[in-house]
Each structure stands twice: as C-alpha cells, then as structure tokens.
Amino acid sequence: MIARGASELSFSAPSSRFRALLRSLLVSALALALALSPARAASEEEPVVKSVVVEGNRRVEVDAIKAVMTTKPGQPVDRKKLQADVRALMKLGYFSDVVIEQRGPPGELTLVVRVIEKPTVQSTRIEGNEELSTDDLKDLVEVKASSILDVVQIRKTVKKMQEKYVEKGFFLAEVSYRIEEKPDNQVVVVFVVNEHAKVQVRRIDFVGNLHVPKDDLLAYMQTQEGSLLSFLTQAGTFKEEALDRDLQAVQALYLERGYVNVKVGRPSVSLSPDKKYLFISIPVEEGEQYTIGKIDFSGDLLDMGGVLRGLVVSRPGDLFQRSKVFQDLTAVGDLYRDQGYAYVNVTPLTNLDPKNRTLQLTFDVQPGKKIYLERIEIAGNSKTRDKVIRRELRIYEGALSSANGIKVSRQRVTALGYFESVEVTTKKGSADDRMVVTVEVKEKPTGTFQVGAGFSSYEKFILTGQVSQNNFLGWGQTLTLQLQWSSVRQLGQLQFVEPYFFDTKWTFAFDLYATDAYYINFNRRAAGGSLTWGYELSGLAWLLPFTRVLEDLRVFLTYTGEYVQVRPATVDLLLYNRFRSGATSAFRLSLQWDKRNNRLTPTSGYYISIASEWAPPFLAPEAIFGSSVNLFSRQTVDLRVYVPIIGALVWRARLNAGFIRPWSGAAPVPVSELYYLGGINTIRGYRLYTISPVTLVGGLPTPDSKLRFLAVGGNKMVVLNLELEYPILEKLGLRAVVFFDMGNSFAPGAWSDPNVGASLYKSWGVGFRWNSPLGPLRFEWGFPLNRRKDPFTGAYIDPAVDFQFTIGSFF
Q1: Are 325 and 348 in contact (CB under 8 A)?
Q2: Is residue 197 helix, strand or coil?
C-alpha cells in the first residue's frame, strides 16, 4: 500500500499493553513529523473523507456503526473526532477492539473502520456444585444465552454464587469462571465451584457475661451452635450480616434487664485447623444493673401532666426495661399526636446515680404546632373508586391530624380485602401547620370466573361454576352467581350486597336461589329469595353520642320467602306430619359485629352474629301462600375468632349454635328445617347430614316390613371448629390447615347424647386451601374420632377417613 503512495493512519482502542504502546509511539512520531514540516502543512489542505467502509462486523449492522460516528463523507479528517468515534463505538459494548484506518490519496481518501466483535454466549454451565443444586444456582446467573459476552455480568454472578454459599454455611467456598471458545465467535461460560467442606458454627462463647446466662443470650440470636439436627434446623449456619444483628440483640437483652451501660464488643471468629468449624467469641462489659428512680415530665405539657402519669407503665423501683420505656414514649407521643400535634418530639432524658444504681427518667415533651390536614390523596387505585376508600377513612380534610385516626383508617381500608397492601404516608403541606396525607393502595384481583370439578368420598363427582366480583365495577359492591352440582346437592344462587347504600350507613342486599339437597331420609328442594336492609349503629351518633364507638356494629332485618318441597327417600317410609311441603315466609333480626382485619382472608380480629328468625302465621296469609306453610322461630349464634400465633401461623375458632322450635303445638317444625350436621362446613370427617338424632320406625304396615333407624333431625345444635392455618406458598395463595371439630344435634327435650363421649362427635384432619385465580378452593381430609356402627349389622357407618372438596371460604 505504501508503494502505491498510499498513506495510512489508524486509531483504535487498546487491546493490549504492547499494541497500545506501539500506537502511541506511532502517533507521537507522526505528530512530531508534522510539527517539523510547517511549510508542507501550510501549503497543503487537510484531506477530505470520500467514503467510510466497515470491516469485521458480523452481527452489528453497518448503518448502526456509521450512525454512532461523527465523521461523515465530505468532511475533512479530524484526529480528535476520529478518537471520539473510537470511544463511542467501544461504549456500545459490542466490540473488543476498534481501529480506524486512512487509505488512499488525499483526494480519494477512504476511512476503514475495522472492528473485532465480542463473542456471543452460546450457553452457561456450572461445575463442581454438589451441596447446592444447579437449580438453586442458575437463577443467580446474569449471563444469558445468545447475549454479548460481558465480563462485568460474569463477575456479578460469581459474587452472588459466593454469597449464596456463605448463606448456606459454606464459608470457604470458592467460585471462579472460565471461558471456552467455540466456532463462529461463540463462547461457553463455565462457573467453577470449589465447595470445600461446609463450615459449621461449633461454639459461641461470651466473655464477661457474669449475670446473664449464655443460654439466655443465645435465645435472642439468629446465629446458633450446630448440632446433629443442623441439617433440619439450619442451626450452625454462619452469616456475617446475621451476626451483626445478633450483637444488637445481645445489647437489647441487657438493656431489657437494666444494664444501661452494657458494651458488646466486636466478636472474634476463628477457624478450626481442619477448616470445618467456626468458633465465635463475643466480649461483653455488663456494667451495673439499674432500677428506675424518679419519673418526671418536662417541656410544654399543655396541662396534660396528670394524664401523662397515668399513661406510662414504668414505675419507680422497677428494673429499667428498654421496651417499657419505648412503650411509654409511644403512648405519650400518641396522646399529643391525637390532639393534632403531629410533629411532637418526646425525648427520654436519663440521669444515672451510680452510687444507688438508680436512673432518673424524664420525658421531655416538645409538641410544636397543631397540624391540620390540608388534603387527603388517594393513589394506586386504577379500578376502585376514590369514595370506596374515602368512606373507610377516619381522618378528614380540614380537621386536626390524628395518629389514631390514621392507624384506624389504614386498618379499615385493608379490611375491605380489595388490596394487597395499604400504605399511609404524610408530607408537609403548603404551610408549616398543614399536612398532606397520601393513602396508597396496591389493588389485587377481586373478581373470579370459575368452572371446576372435584371429587368427594360422599358426594362423588362435583361440578362447580361461579362468577363473583367482590368489588363490582370498583363500587365496593359484591355480586355473585354460583352453580354447584353433585350427587347429593345442587345449588343455583345470585347474590348482591351494597354495604353503603347511596353512600349512607345503610346496607342493601338481595339473594335469589334454588337448591336441591339429598338428606339421609328425604330430599329437600327449595326456591326463593331474601331481601335485607342493614344499618351501622355509629350512624346514630348525631342522636345518641355513645354510638360513635359502635363502628362495624350493624343491625339487619331480612325477609325470606321460599317454597320448600320435601319427599321421603323411599316410598315405604312413613312418619306422620314430618315430610311436609309448604311455603316459608319469615323475617330475621340480626346483630353483627365485624372486627376482622380482612373480610376476605382474615388473620386477626373477630366476627359476632346473633340472630332471631320468626315465621309467624300473619306473615303467610293463605291468599298468597296457600294453606300449607312452615311456622317456627329460630335463634342462632355465630362467633369467629382469629389470632396470629407466630409469623404467618394463624389460630382460628368458630362456634355455631342454633335452636328452633314450633310456632304452636298444632304446627310442628318440618323435618327440612331441623339440624343435620356433618360435612365440610360443619363437622368434618363425618358424611354430609349424617349427624342427627334417630328414632326406630317401620315402613309400610305389611308382615315383611322391617324396623329401621330414621334420622329425624335435631331442634338444637352446637358446632366448634378449631384450626391452625399456615401459608405454604404465599405467592400462589396456597395454605395448609390442621383442624379439630366437635359438635352434635340434639332431639327436642334432650341436651345430651349418651351414644358419644361428652355428648359431642369429634374429628380431626388436615387439608389445604387455594386462593386460585378462579376462586377459593378447599380440599380437606377428616378423620372421625367417634365412628358409629350399624346396630343391626355391626358395620361401621362412618369411614375411617372422609375427603371433601368444595368452593368458597369457611371462616
């Protein structure tokens, strides 16, 4: 090329030290030559670029490369621009080297952009891992197949794998990588693991703990000594972050026991010679134990000093406990925050008396200004209307701020069950005494469309279909259409509930249904509906101020009209005046108090319902309902309690009790209204409707008619359900449950049952519940503890285990 008189000048990104040095010398020499030839520089013009040619590219388009460059055809050669072009191309991340060369005479100058593309990742592989599976590690790999090789991503992956091994107790594990070259400029990235042995915390010692035993300190720590069961409990696993938190926990324990001058030093961690065990030593300077001396208050108390003394739980002479003092700080602060002093500052001032080992405690209160709520903003609700959220708030624009009001508002919005999360934040308003409150929600699906099938040991094949919307059109209403079919029951139902009718305290609901249920001795077919009006008693606060505290306490009046058809299971079954069909016209007065933290999936709180139902003659005039009507009165109690135990473990209890009696001696309660227990919604483990008082009856008056026991239903019933529920796959809505049920149905005049211990049938069982995208599903296996036998054959009536499947919630 030089022989043809071509001159060549190249710019490139350094690929090695030698190459970079060579180019540097070349450019310096050329610059020196140009500097020594002023006459030539003055007489000749800078060459003009006629064309730009790209070489070496395989994946990156030529136009994409030229688009990055500032040097274009028709422009004079500018060395600074060419250097900038090289840097810009390297920043794309696609090339390992870029060289720009100058070819041809000045009048026919061509710029040749020669690139070397980075290789493509063909695949990744992990080697040497035995204790941790490839599935555990592959999610950590940031390098993806078909991507451009990126060493930074590889190093990040190595670091993540190393941290994963440390988390699992492999303190000495080493992770490296190698790159295997493949044809067509492709590579395989191999992560190489050297696990070594798992390092276990063998012993944790405390130096200087004269008054607090080692076992007490270890109970507060995440880091634990290893044992033979460490493979199950993960005890003995070392994590540096956990140990740092443990030091704070140790200090907190000492402060809880009155050692206010305690000092917890940095631990020393040593490795056993065989590199299998860690030994941790934590130095502690306990200091003296202090009791509380005088308790006082200072600052601007706003004439509330007497009230403050009644709030604090710490008392003179008590051992100093940090948790109690923190509780006192919160109580004092909340008192002022509820009075509108949102930015109150409560500082605990302490004065130690080393001689008497007492601590004088002074709560200094600086309330600041009263703060008013300038604006309440709702965010995150793309579907739910603002008013559905606002009507649950107990804070109001223009009113004084209230800490308790904010807390209760968050609880009430969460209890709707429409949102995954509810966060309430505050910020300064347009003035120092103004505050803006933001209620930010994260919506979750509240509608379901379900078509499903299941199997029960008693109902056999079950078909279900449901369309449900718990937040219908974002108005906070509930609309449900449900269909169920099995060999023993069919159901069709349409329900609608409006909890705030026209934005008032009134509730409006209606229910239309048709059912067909097969009991042991008869079939009950019913069609009808109900209409309900309810009112929240706190709405009477304008008239009766004490009702202001009765939030979530509602009174309901429900009218039900239905026609019931009853047919005996067999034609030879005779029982006078029991299998009667007729119309029911009844009203029910109920009182409900709902304090659950979430109405769809509660984990704390309670629900109480007390109801009295009447079906008197005057509600069923013969002109409308005919001469065959069902007359009775019924009282029921439904109590549900939810208690969080540890973490996500929830204990639930439900008590159901009912009592029904005839309206008069001439109109006995029809068998279809009496109580039959058993099944997935009452006493699990016993088949549906099989728990009932029985009587010995005969069939048709023929010589071969046999006696049999007939389940006649009870006029009293009680059921207690106890459950422990724990989410096993929380993101998927899958929860496991262990339960214990007991209950019975009692005949008129009887309050006990000699056929079963404690007069109650008992069972236990396990199951799981799935909040599926199609709706809540229940799968439960019950084991009866009081299996009954046929008195004539001696065979068991109840199976050893009963599987039940259904749709819907139980608690």
Answers
A1: yes
A2: coil
In whole angstroms, what is the distance from residue 88 CA to residue 247 CA?
A: 50
Residue 561 to residue 579: CA distance in whole angstroms: 19
Q: Cα–Cα distance between 712 and 576 in angstroms, integer?
A: 12
| Three-state secondary structure call for residue 7 | coil
Q: Are 752 and 759 in contact (CB under 8 A)?
A: yes
Phi-psi region of 238 (alpha: psi -120 to 50; beta: other; left: phi over 0): beta
Question: Are the C-beta atoms of 676 and 690 separated by less than 8 Å?
Answer: yes
The whole-angstrom separation of Cα 186 and Cα 123 is: 9
Is the CB of residue 764 less than 8 Å from the CB of residue 780? no
- Which residues, listed in sequence order, are joined to residue 772 by a DSSP beta bridge? 775
Number of other residues whose CB lies within 10 A of the CB of residue 502: 7
Structure tokens at 521: 């001795």
Q: d(Cα 258, Cα 380) in Å, to the nearest integer?
A: 46
Partner residues linked to 650 by β-bridges: 644, 725
> Which of the four pLDDT bands, split at 50, 70 and 90, describes residue 252?
very high
**Residue 29 φ/ψ region, left for φ over 0, alpha for ψ in the -120 to 50 degree band, beta for the rest:** alpha
Closest CA to 223 of 231, 213, 232, 233: 233
Find all residues with CB under 8 Å of 56, minimum gap 6, and list them. Answer: 114, 115, 116, 117
Q: How many residues does the chain have?
A: 811
Report helix, strand or coil for 101: strand
Q: What is the DSSP letter of 255?
A: H
pLDDT at 97: 86
Sheet with 95-103, side-by-side order of all strands: 10-12, 95-103, 109-117, 49-55
| pLDDT band at residue 26 under the 50/70/90 scheme | low
Asked if residue 215 has pLDDT above 70, the reply is: yes
d(CA 279, CA 604): 42
How many other CB atoms are found less than 10 A from the CB of residue 252?
Answer: 15
DSSP state of 547: G
The reported pLDDT for the residue numbered 79 is 85
- The whole-angstrom distance between residue 53's C-alpha and the CA centroid of its chain comes to 59
Return the minimum-mean-pLDDT range out of 53-62, 356-365, 384-393, 758-767. Answer: 53-62
DSSP 44: S
Residue 680, token pair as written in the block: 């997935």
DSSP code, position 810: -
Q: What is the mean pLDDT of residues 448-453?
A: 63
Q: Is the pLDDT of residue 218 over 70?
A: yes
Q: What's the token pair of residue 398?
A: 């223009």
Cα angle, residue 509 at apex, residues 504 and 510 outer, rounded to 5°:
155
| HEC-encoded secondary structure of 744-784 | EEECCCCCCCCCCHHHCEEEEEEEEEEEECCEEEEEEEEEE
- The domains of the chain, with CATH numbers, are 10-117 (3.10.20.310), 120-194 (3.10.20.310), 200-285 (3.10.20.310), 291-366 (3.10.20.310), 372-443 (3.10.20.310), 502-673 (2.40.160.50)
Which percentage of the chain shows pLDDT scores above 90? 49
Reported as a single tens digit per residue, the pLDDT across 333-351 is 999 999 999 999 999 999 9
Q: Using CA atoms, how far apart are residues 479 and 477, in angstroms rounded to an integer?
A: 7
> Residue 712: its pLDDT value, please?
87
Please tell me the predicted confidence (pLDDT) of residue 462: 74
DSSP string spanning 692-732?
S-EEEE--SSSTT---EEEE--BSEEEEEEEEEEEEEEGGG
Q: Phi first, then psi: what are they for 268, rounded to 5°?
A: -105, 135
The residue-averaged pLDDT of 309-333 equals 93
